[in-house]
Amino acid sequence: MSLRARSVLAFATFAIGGLAAVAGSSQPPLAGDEVAAVDLAGWLRERREKLCVLDARSADAFDAGHLPGARRLADSAASDDGDTVVVYADRDVDAGVADALRRQSAARVLRLHGGLRAWNDEVLFPVLRGDASAGQRQRFEARAALSRYFGGTPRQLDPGEAAGRTRSRRGC
Q1: Is 118 helix (H, G, I), strand (E, B) or coil?
Q2: pTM of the predicted protein model
Q3: Who contacts 162 (Cβ-Cβ below 8 Å, separation ≥6)?
Q4: Could you tell me which of 134, 115, 135, 137 has the C-alpha nearest to residue 126?
Q5: pLDDT tens across 145-161, in order?
Q6: Structural domains for the chain
Q7: Is residue 105 a contact partner of residue 130, using CB atoms and an 8 Å limit?
Q8: Name one Pfam family in it (predicted).
Q9: Which residue from 42, 52, 132, 133 could staple onto 82, CB 3.0 to 4.6 Å apart?
Q10: Are 88 and 116 in contact (CB under 8 A)?
Q11: What's the rounded Cα separation, in Å, for the pair 100 and 31?
Q12: How many angstroms separate the CA atoms of 61 and 58, rounded?
């Protein structure tokens, strides 16, 4: 086999392997220092000991709404309170924030993947498409129970119904 053929074969192997790793997932894979919203919800529901959740947003944003049990990062030396610290913002937290927390604490510091937006989409307001498979329906039922635990409203769509809200566009 020629060197060029080996190179093409090696590239194809890595490309297929990479695609297989994320097949069936609409989300990019988590980084090593991230936790998924559904996993964090499970930890909170089971009242995992020594878990500290820190909100990296402004005081006004925190007062408008935050995750259960969360404390403001700016007001707290709370990273010393837990073995695991999860920090979040509206979307993904800058890795520098997590790195600064790691330097200050011996705790394992994780970022909430997708931030508060992921919490809302995946925990509080999950949506099941009307054409979902039996496996997807089963996973949704577990998420729906978690959603209701936190006061959310899971939604099952009818076949053909769009997941987003319908919006009319007026003007130019």
Answers
A1: helix
A2: 0.73
A3: none
A4: 137
A5: 999 999 999 999 987 77
A6: 25-151 (3.40.250.10)
A7: no
A8: Rhodanese
A9: 52
A10: yes
A11: 17
A12: 5
